[in-house]
Amino acid sequence: MEESDFQPPKRFARPLEPQEELDYSRGYVPRKTDASNKWSRRNFQEWLFNRNTACPNDPCPEDVLSPTDPSLLNRWLTCYVVETRNKDGKPYLPKTLHLLFLGELLHGKRNCCVAKTAAAC
Asked: Could you read off the pLDDT of 48-71 as tens digits, one per residue?
């Protein structure tokens, strides 16, 4: 019997192709979560650009989320929390800040660039 003639029992699906394995291993991200993560990433990138434009003598490193020095991460995340605002200029509520950080954490985990201190969660 040739391999192509083999029919698995009904209780098993056909074996996955290599690309399908990769797709399943990445996991499913709900549409709303994906949108929230993109918003978080965009917010951080806009803050980083504006911060570095406003303070060229004290720029925030582009790779600030993957530092080897936890005190560096602490400094810049503190600045981010204090300086980021709603579009109307009001500070974000604590729950929103939580979502911003969660989005950055998930982005880092997916892209393997978050420092060990942040990825330990």
From this structure: 999 999 999 999 998 888 767 889
